Amino acid sequence: MPRNKYPEETVQKILDVSLKLFLEKGYEQTTILDIVNNLGGLSRGAFYHHFKSKDEVLNALSDKMFFENNPFEQVKNEKGLNGLEKIQKVIKSQFQNQDLQEINAMTVPLANNPRILAEYIASNQSVLAPLFEELVQEAIQDGSIKNIKYPKAFSSLFAMIIDVWFMPTICPCSKEELLERLYLIKEMLDVLGVPILDEEIIQLSKHKIQQVMETIEKE
User: Fold this and answer.
1) Where is the HTH tetR-type domain positioned along the sequence (predicted)?
2) pTM confidence score
3) Nearest 5°: CA angle at 161, between 156 and 166?
4) Distance between CA 120 and CA 164 in Å, rounded?
5) pLDDT range class, residue 1, cuts 50, 70, 90
């Protein structure tokens, strides 16, 4: 049989169908057969040619949805905002993207897989940390935050804290302990002269904590 001349179209179709099914039925309730049956004639072999598992599809969806609506790119040239305000807007925008929030909530149990966890942490440091660093450097230049001596190290640590240490499936804790981590992060940032976590972000974070802990309790 001839090989698919447009593999990217197949990948896109798999992701589109999977997103629709995950949001409609839920991740656990959607099977690979469900996905294949909605691919308009594509075979199970076509699915496995591009993805080894449903977990890989979910991770690919999370990445795709982030980069299609990359908040760092959206705020980069936004006039009227200083560097600190851009960082805050990036964080707030992640709470407002409902589909991305739902997909990210589905990925919570996957942190128990060592390979997926390792890939997640590596992506955090290779992708997210440099994006934060760019805005931190801008904030230092415009004076909206203090002149941090080690902006690269700070950005790496901040990305790790909010995406790893603040994830109870990776660093287990109770809801009360997670709230303590939130307020500790705020105090540390304020002392450093980087008041990123304003009241709106705190309230959005508390709501997110409630959702995450409810998801974990259902597992």
Assistant:
1) 8-69
2) 0.77
3) 155
4) 9
5) very low
Write down the residue that tokens 């940032």 correspond to: 189
Residue 204: both structure tokens together: 């959005």
Delimit the domains of the chain by residue range: 7-51, 58-218
Report which residue type is found at 83. Answer: G
**Predicted local distance difference test score (pLDDT) of residue 3:** 38
Within a 13 Å sphere around the CA of 210, how many CA atoms are in the beta-carbon half? 6
- pLDDT tens for residues 121-176? 888 899 899 999 999 999 999 999 987 999 999 999 999 998 889 888 788 889 99
| Amino acid (1-letter code) at residue 14 | I
> With helix as H, strand as E and coil as C, how does 75-123 read?
HHCCCCCCHHHHHHHHHHHHHHCHHHHHHHHHCHHHHHCHHHHHHHHHH
Q: What is the per-residue pLDDT for 157? A: 96
**In angstroms, rounded to a whole number, what is the distance separating the alpha carbons of residues 183 and 87?**
18
Tens of pLDDT, residues 53-67: 888 888 888 788 778
Give the length of the chain: 219
Dihedral Cα 95, 98, 102, 105, nearest 10 deg = 0
Q: Which CATH number fits domain 7-51: 3.30.450.20, 3.40.1190.20, 1.10.10.60, 3.60.15.10?
A: 1.10.10.60
- Reading the block at residue 54, the tokens are 């449903």
Three-state secondary structure call for residue 53: coil
Residue 210 neighbours by CB under 8 Å, 6+ apart: 175
What span, in angstroms and rounded, lies between the C-alpha atoms of 114 and 120? Answer: 10
